[in-house]
Amino acid sequence: MTGRPMLIVDSCSDLTAEIVDSLDIHEIHFPFTIAGVDREDDFGRTFPHASFYQAMRDGSEPTTAQIPRTTFAEAFRLAATEGRTAIYLGFSSGLSGTFDSAFLTRQSVLEEFPDADIRILDTLSASIAEGLIVYEAARMLAAGASADELVAWAEANRMRVNGFFTLDNLESLKRGGRISDAAAAAGAMLDIKPILLLDREGKLTLKRSVRGRKKSLSALIDIMAERAEQPVGTMIVGHADAPEDAEKVRAMVEERFSPAEILMLEIGPVIGAHVGPGMVAVSFWGAER
Q1: What string of pLDDT tens digits covers the 289 residues of the chain?
Q2: Is the pTM of this model over 0.90?
Q3: Of 30, 50, 26, 52, residue with least CA distance to 42
């Protein structure tokens, strides 16, 4: 293959449109439906994330779908015709069948372009955790890393990506069938705030529950203290239309860890549809899951 590898990134990485535009990557979008309208998650360009969450607050129940195989085919064919290695760092197979679609599409495109070099890697991450590994991968390519070096690095380091999330209420977990109606009602009465993590299989798992929003935000910082590599390099604070709480977390992170870089990101529709407004999250490099 000639030329710089083509890094293909899906919109569940929840980077900002500005970051995506600056990284020289090929973006592909998840579809979703809200308030009866079919849309694409294009990093908030055509439908701001705040509007998405407001629609949820107003009673809309959004649905999401896998990235169509035709979208993968277009990206893989483009790289093949340009003589470039395609590298797709994908949304966790533990949360979606999209990675399987990418695999099947790769096989069909290779029949059409036998000499194509198409690499696909399951990040086993989602949202800002996926964004963290994608962000670093893009910077490595910009610094001259080869396709082999990038894929080897991603495979070796994806378990070092830590993602922890706290929800404002239990409604989304009830809607998704993760807890019963009775448990959700009891949690609301007791002001229970769940804390979720991404496990080794790339699934969202309940780690613990605490009482009160203030304690749940502090718990994210305590978990980071337990697990983050020191000194802290690039890390991400994300939120689902909860900018004030995200800023509180950012300030606590800055005071306690003085990281080299903090990215402030908004949680997009792919994860947002399942967790609802109010989620606050941190992602950082640390102990393996």
Answers
A1: 668 999 999 999 999 999 999 998 999 999 999 999 999 999 999 999 999 999 999 999 999 999 999 999 999 999 999 999 999 999 999 999 999 999 999 999 999 999 999 999 999 999 999 999 999 999 999 999 999 999 999 999 999 999 999 988 767 666 655 555 655 555 566 688 889 899 999 998 888 889 999 999 999 999 999 999 999 999 999 999 999 999 999 999 999 999 999 999 999 998 999 889 999 999 999 999 9
A2: yes
A3: 30
Q: What are phi and psi of 21, to 5 degrees?
A: -65, -30
- CATH number reported for the structural domain that contains residue 280 in this entry: 3.30.1180.10
* Domain enclosing residue 246, as ranges: 160-285
Which residue reads 């900018």 in tokens? 243
CA atoms within 13 A on the CB side of 42: 7
Q: Give CA–CA dist 205/197, Å, rounded.
A: 5
Looking at 104, 139, 158, the residue that finishes a domain is: 158
Could you say which of 104, 123, 158 is where a domain stops? Answer: 158
- 1 is a domain residue: no
Say which CATH number the domain at 141 has.
Answer: 3.40.50.10170
